Amino acid sequence: MFLDKLNDNLPKWDLTDLYSGVKSEKLTNDIGNLFKRAESLNQLFESKISEASASSFLELITEFQSIKEGVDKFISFSYLTYCTDMDDQNKGKFFQNMQEKATEISSKILFVKLEISRLDDSKIATLTECQKVSFFKPWIMDVRAERNHQLSDDLEKLLNEKQLISSAWVRLFDQLISKLRFYVDDKELTITEIFDFLSDNSEEKRRKAGESIGKTLSKNIQSFALITNTLAKDKEIEDRWRNFSEPIYSRNLSNRVENEIVNTLISSVEEAYPRISHRYYKLKAKWMGVKKLSYWDRNAPISKAQEKEIPWADAVDTVSKAYRDFSPTLANIGQQFFDNEWIHAQLLSGKAPGAFAHPTVPSAHPYLLLNYQGKNRDVMTLAHELGHGIHQVLAGDCGHLMSETPLTLAETASVFGEQLTFQAMLKCVDDIELRKVMLAAKVEDMLNTVVRQVAFCQFEQNIHLERRSGELTTDRICEIWLESQSKSLGPSVDISGDYKYFWAYIPHFIHSPFYVYAYAFGDCLVNALYGAYLKKPEGFEPLYIDLLKAGGTLSHKELLSPFGLNAEKKQFWTTGLNVIEAYIDELSGI
What we know:
The chain has helices spanning 25-45, 54-83, 89-109, 111-118, 121-127, 131-134, 137-144, 153-179, 191-196, 203-219, 221-242, 249-254, 259-272, 274-287, 312-326, 328-339, 376-395, 407-410, 412-427, 432-449, 451-467, 474-489, 508-511, 517-535, 540-549, 556-560, 570-589; strands spanning 182-184, 187-189, 293-294, 343-344, 356-358, 367-369, 493-494. The chain is mainly α.
């Protein structure tokens, strides 16, 4: 197995702040106590919430929050244990068993949200007159926002327990992905390593990597098509029962963002395709001396110089300094991740690909997963995930029920952290050619975050809409994929051959349908925020920190108002897209 030589110096996390191990006595005792507490809460309050006084209602919510946090703590531990070695059947079994226990406990307290959603407005007004109850009002109103799509108690319990089945399909996808092996020049590579080759300096390696990815995915494509069809049908059934007329609407509701705003975002990005992605790839094809870029050259380096490998310590210094120059407060929070064992960056066989920040629970702390390979983009990934981690720490003061930020706002701190790091690195560059390389990499990253994710969203919409009429063949899924990709990438990118199978490896389609547009939302939002910062840096930092501290307690409108921004207006999205266009303008003049 080919592993990065930096591996020995990369951190691995220590999960003992959650539990000491899978056989931990505390873990067993906690689960047992959570069962008892959930049963007790059920007996005390089920079918009685409408009669509750403010004090008993506060007791209910406080205990409900505590039980939920306890459940999410052991679920977080089980997932973080599993995701670094998905090939280990015992770890997979442990994760599944923990999910089943969590579902049993959750079923006992499911009535809380259902009954709160059905309370009269006058009852809610009376209860929230109590100051301690009013603290939870944002969560209460979020719960009530879903009441038009709720079913009977029995059906809600059935759907809650049935989630274990869909979760098993998701786990199957993860295991298939972790077991895939690719080959370049007789080297066996994991999915993380093979995609790194697509940005290699060697055109031959990129071609071989692209062909190997397509070949390996094609061999497994029927399994991926079955998983996609099954989960799309599962979602269609629930959407139909819950009366969601469009597949994306349930995600919009959970994101607390209006359907019209999401539609405006998507249409604004699509309208910008010709002037950003189409224009940039035409420019890049010219730089590379070809009429069309092969799909494996889409993220190819534009310089022939070998990219310098960046040691982990240097990456940490670069990111930490960028954060500190903007805000010592944010930098000090971020430093905790480096001083403690809260990051897993090593490349391991069976480890989940990509990167993420897992918030765990407010009583503990987040953990970051990376697959660090010493490239510039890995430094940006560190800046991105660290932003998530800092955001999660700050939002933790809202308590477990309100610390989770809607996906549309969850990318704010991460993308802002990337922008801070990029600008800090760019300031140190005097060489025109190096500046061109850095700007091109940034544009490609932004296109991947905005254009590519909106294209992903359109692909998902078409898959889910067509699935309503019956199962899709593998060929039809591939056709829908190529349609969305051709529209977004433009005529200067050749997506023929086995690129038609590349939809199969993307985890967001399986893990969180319609998550993807949140990246475009976040990138455009941050571009507008960063513009506000450059225009008026004085007083920006405390406002920004307050935005992060708010967690899920405020709407996007309330959060953006102090900065003079409004996501309801199309100009907001145009402003964000203009930042990408300005970078392309500069590149075209170099």
